[in-house]
Amino acid sequence: MLLVILVLGCSNPKAVELNGLSVTSPGVAYHPRAFLPTLENPGPTRQQVIADLRLLRKNGFQSLVTYGAGSTMGCIPGIARQEGFDGLVIMGIWDPLSEQEWRNALAEAPFVDGYCLGNEGLGVRYSPDELASKMTELRRLTGRPVTTSEPVASYLEGPYRDWLLVNSDWLFPIAHPFLANQGTPDGAVDWVVALYDYLTATSGRQVIIKETGFPSAGSKICSEEIQLSFFRVLRTKGIQFFYFEAFDQPWKKEIRQHEVEAHWGLFRADSTPKKIISWFANLTLRSE
């Protein structure tokens, strides 16, 4: 049914209005290379974040979405602006109840276009009432639009569908076709576009895909060539999305128990580029 009920996406793949803000493509979902989700790990240094962001900006990325606001990650939006990110900057707050993340998020408001409060944690790491209250407070204190992010299926059905539509200033779903058993680039793109168009049509709301991508390794149907083909086709469809993700994160395979989780990046964990980055370079040259 989702493949049948389609409407046109935005006609201009470069920009769309979001509460008066311009969403400039390409945008990338960013975790620092030095990030590890452990208490023992102090997190990336400021210089490591600067190096990451310079590399991304050099290769054409203009918009950015982050995930957490603790420690140095709480300074990413300001650093991104200094390094030339002139598109949409969405600041993520991983734990909506963290006082440190809250303070950092408020301090970065001059550099931020919007906030994503929480990520795949509704009803698990925080309750709907807790999240709604913090979203309202963040809007009041910053004057910025606020949303949260959950897997795309949660916006279509289930116990939190109506809550997400009511409480989000824009819809920010996560849509990974590989995890939905879409194993070919064309099929994967069709799956993403159908869900995007269906959600836009049925909700009447602005939709931006927070995460979509294709692993470059970890399964017999994954390769750098397929990753490149997926994004090359998706870019032509006129939908708004963030490339997932900037760098491989090897720690994810230990937590999620699947080899592909370490291979979503456009760059490897050592910052060497995958094939998609050469494609980006050619696009940049042609547009100059």
The helix-strand sequence is: EEEHEHEHEHEHHEHEHH
Please give the number of β-strands: 9
| Number of spatially distinct domains | 1
Second CATH tier, the architecture: Alpha-Beta Barrel
Percentage of residues assigned to helices: 25-40%
| Separate helix tally | 9
Q: Find the structural class using helix and strand composition.
A: alpha/beta
Radius of gyration over all CA atoms, rounded: 18 Å
Alpha carbon gap, first and last residue? 42 Å
Numbering strands along the chain, what is their spatial order in the largest sheet?
7-6-5-4-3-9-8
CATH-assigned homologous superfamily: Glycosidases
Query: Low-confidence spans: pLDDT under 50, at least 5 residues?
Result: 1-17
- CATH class, named Alpha Beta
Task: Tell me about this structure.
The protein is 34% helix and 10% strand. The protein has 288 residues and is an alpha/beta fold. It has a single domain (17-287), classed as Alpha-Beta Barrel (TIM Barrel), CATH 3.20.20. The strands form two sheets. The protein has a seven-stranded parallel beta sheet with strand order 7-6-5-4-3-9-8, covered by helices on one side. A two-stranded antiparallel sheet has the order 1-2. Helix 6 (185-203) packs parallel to helix 7.
